[in-house]
Amino acid sequence: MKVTIITSSLTSNYSGGSTHVNNVVYRLTKYFDVEFIPSINFFINNHKTEEELEKISKNGIKIPEFVYSFSFTNLKPSFLPYSSSVYEAFSEKVKLDSDFIYDPDYTTPESIFISNRNKIQLGITLHAPLYSLSQCIFYTYYTLKPFFFNSLDYFMKRSIALYLLTEKKEGYIKRARYMSFIAGVSKGVIDSIKTKKIKKYLLFPANGVDKELLNYRTKDKEDYVVFWTTLIPPKGILNFIYVLKLLKDEGIKVKAKVAGNFLYEKFKKFFFKYVTDNSLDVEYLGFLDKTKLHDKRRLYEVVSKAKLLVYPSLNDGFSITVLEALALGTPVIAYSIPTVYSAYKDVPAVKFVKEGDIKKMTEEVKNELNKGELLDAVFSDKVRSFVEFHNWDNVTESIVKIIKNAVES
């Protein structure tokens, strides 16, 4: 069976979605004849397209010859999808003879336009929910504490753009004429999909970790908490340092280690100024690239020795960060957004706090540092079994079953 993969990249690991894509798509070659059509974003401001395509083809994935002729020098990077005419023109250049099209990380609609034009069945996976208007507004507001009044411009742009993005994604789904299924990485993601005409599947397991992480587990913890992800407000970096400030105000000095990449210079300045002005004990480790062995080992060692991952994120569809922390033997306190809550609600080493309730999160962090109940739970058989089940081979097999069922039905 020939399956065409349409997505933005098979070489990056900048997000949970891209990590999932890289680990799954290459494994799909064990089950299908796989070819890759890059979406438009792959080509935007990318001066290494041929180099990346060559790397992909060496790993058993076919690249159609016409892909090498694609050029999008007239387009600029965009948070929102481009106009329909851009995707229509793109799809005209793609001639397929495959049995199925699969988009493993639906963010832009190329797969839908190509499926419609070639009259081939399509399946997509969502790694982020389709946010409601209230979620777009309130989640963005919560993520900016305690810098809301310094960030009104970001609040307006982010809230509106997130809502428009959801509207665009939903609109394109409605235009799909050959959509066989929509898969989601958590029940929270699935519940956000309003269409009732298309089959929906919950991937289980939805994401995985490598077994090597279990080798870093240790009960010999050091006296600090950790936070690592992309360092943007929706992922909780501002809420995180606010929690540290509230703990200090109560006379509780907490050391923290932070790793990740700041995408916005404005919030990077906010972060360091707030840490300095409030004399917070925060060590910034920089961006630790898991594709580099030295960085990966350092990150895993730091996380495994932490007493707690404090994770006030309001922008996750599943959260591989939480899964990796559990694998490394570090418990988690997180916001109870529907996506992450539905994925980890039965894991005893994860404590949930109502979205945006920073005072309650501060209280739970204080309780855990005093009592260590989550730390005891993270080494239970139940948590270890949960982590071991969440491996990339199992994830791939769950997707293979869905694709085969779609083709055969």
Automatic annotation (TrEMBL):
Entries under Pfam families matching the protein? Glycos_transf_1 (PF00534)
Q: Does the keyword Transferase apply?
A: yes
* Location of the Glycosyl transferase family domain: 218-373
Q: Which GO terms describe its molecular function?
A: glycosyltransferase activity
Coiled-coil portions: none
Instruction: For this UniProt record, give its keywords in alphabetical order, as a comma-separated list.
Output: Transferase
Q: Does the keyword Oxidoreductase apply?
A: no
Q: Which domain of life is it from?
A: Archaea
What's the protein name?
Glycosyl transferase
